[in-house]
Write a structure and sequence with these properties.
Strand 3, helix 1 and strand 4 form a beta-alpha-beta unit. Helix 2 packs parallel to helix 3. The C terminus is likely disordered. The chain has one domain: Rossmann fold (3-Layer(aba) Sandwich), CATH 3.40.50.1820. The longest helix is centred in the middle third of the chain and has 30 residues. By secondary structure, it is an alpha/beta fold. An eight-stranded mixed β-sheet has the order 1-2-4-3-5-6-7-8, with helices on both faces.
Length: 255
């Protein structure tokens, strides 16, 4: 864990994981209401293994330091109480300080889970110096539909979220066509975490693939993919143009 300082002077800790080689960029991992748990640190380690500097700020430190709660009703209630005390403004301030701490590694992506998913969506328009954001299971995100996102935004929703109906997700998609929002059948909150009972392997793998592709595209600037037969198609168009031009030539015919 390292110590960071927000613009208002408040200090907080963060879990930082380094890649084995030169970083390809950075990923800020935003916690759910259970704190910077073993699972959140595991996510950061996985991003580091992919070549990114990964950092997970402890957003509860302003109220209670070192929070790591169990994934049960008691842990969720305590975490919800702490997150309510933190509020959006203080969390965004700490996220900005976290982004500033890793921007020397290259472009920065934000990935958030549940409460952190909502914060990631808000950060897209409030935090400076980010290339893209990805949010998982942000149940409050769909209520924030009025403003176009300033950076590319990818969202993952489960279809069996008791706090968020499919109707609300469908309406959000209609309001915000600039946001890429995916849903996963038979998935519950926390479907992407292999340490929880709600884990769904197929949905988690698909969501992760989309997340990594998003980060690769906007953090690393992935090169355009050459479509199959694109070269032959281009050549055919060129030859067609040449033929047309030759037919319009008023000079003597070629031998």
């Amino acid at each position: 864990m390292i110590e960071l300082t927000a613009s208002d002077g408040a200090s907080f800790s963060a879990y930082r994981a380094e890649p084995a080689d030169a970083p390809r960029g950075a990923v800020v991992v935003l916690q759910d209401v259970f704190g910077v748990t073993f699972e959140i640190r595991k996510v950061a380690d996985a991003f580091a293994a992919k070549g990114y500097v990964a950092i997970a700020p402890s957003l509860f430190d302003r109220v209670k330091a070192g929070v790591s709660l169990g994934h049960d009703a008691g842990g969720k209630a305590e975490g919800a109480s702490i997150s309510a005390q933190i509020g959006t403004e203080q969390a965004i301030s700490d996220i900005q300080a976290t982004v500033d701490a890793v921007k020397d590694a290259g472009k920065v992506a934000i990935v958030g889970y549940c409460w952190g998913g909502d914060l990631a969506y808000t950060a897209a328009n409030r935090v400076k110096g980010i290339a893209c954001v990805i949010g998982y299971d942000g149940s409050q995100t769909v209520a924030d539909y009025r403003e176009k996102r300033k950076v590319p935004t990818l969202l993952h929703f489960c279809e069996n979220d008791p706090e968020l109906s499919m109707e609300a997700i469908t309406q959000f998609r209609a309001w915000r066509p600039d946001v890429s929002a995916f849903t996963y059948a038979d998935a519950l909150q926390g479907f992407g975490c292999d340490e929880r009972g709600s884990y769904r392997e197929d949905a988690a793998a698909t969501a992760l693939e989309r997340t990594l592709s998003w980060i690769s595209q906007y953090v690393e600037g992935q090169q355009p993919i050459m479509l199959k037969n694109a070269g032959a198609y281009a050549q055919a168009k060129t030859e067609k143009k040449k033929t047309k031009k030759a037919g319009n030539d008023l000079g003597p015919p070629a031998d």
